[in-house]
Amino acid sequence: MKTEKTVKTIKIDVDKCNGCRACEVVCSAFHAQPRYSSVNPARARIRVIRDPLADIFVPVYAGEYTAAECAGRDRYTIDGKQYEECAFCRSVCPSRDLFKEPDSGLPLKCDMCESDPTLQEPLCVTWCLADALVYEERTALAEKAPAPADVDVGLEALANEHGWAKVLDAVTRMSVKMGRES
Ligand code: SF4
Ligand code: SF4
């Protein structure tokens, strides 16, 4: 059965990105526990893929966690510059360290700065003074939310990859954080 849902999008204009990394800084601060208590771009859910010599900066948002590597790879050539395989991929996978919480190794995912009260727009958009990031919302039809059994399977996949101790530790910290914010 289909239901209406809000699709949140951040449009990225690579030509406007100057590599300042303000988006990484504010994202890591917003998701610190307690909120704004620390800054560490390694914990950001957006990373800027840089090639200063070619003057190219590409912001990439953390997407879904996957326990398996891709069987095939892409290789991009843009303006004559070749990018490494996986450079622009949003997935959190075993191939690389990108979008993994540095202490626990658990996957990070962009949550569009969901919080209570709701922000007018994600903070990386607000703090991108170069206007390389633009926030948009639209309504779309989608399948109903996954049944609880799917959540169990997701947790089990995380536990197989990282161990139950790390997963439970992260869940506990999230619960404490939500308790503080409620
Ligand atoms: S804040 Fe904007 S200009 Fe700066 S690195 Fe991020 S996307 Fe690029
Ligand atoms: S939308 Fe929020 S959570 Fe996602 S990358 Fe930007 S600041 Fe981080």
Topology diagram in text:
Elements: E1 2-12, H1 22-30, E2 46-51, E3 56-61, E4 77-78, E5 81-82, H2 123-126, E6 133-143, H3 148-162, H4 164-181
Antiparallel strand pairs: 1-6, 2-3, 4-5
Helix pairs in contact: 3-4
The chain binds iron/sulfur cluster (2 copies).
One iron/sulfur cluster binds next to α1 and α2.
Question: How would you characterize the overall build of this protein?
Answer:
The chain is α+β, with helices and mostly antiparallel strands and 182 residues long. It has one domain (2-143). The protein contains 4 helices and 6 strands; from the N terminus they run E-H-E-E-E-E-H-E-H-H. The chain has helices at residues 22-30, 123-126, 148-162, 164-181, and strands at 2-12, 46-51, 56-61, 77-78, 81-82, 133-143. A hairpin with a 2-residue loop joins strand 4 and strand 5 (81-82). The radius of gyration is 17 Å and the shape is globular. The protein binds iron/sulfur cluster (SF4) (2 copies). One iron/sulfur cluster (SF4) binds next to helix 1 and helix 2.
Summarize the model shown.
The chain contains four helices and six strands, in the order E-H-E-E-E-E-H-E-H-H. With 182 residues, the chain is an alpha+beta fold. The two termini are 32 Å apart.
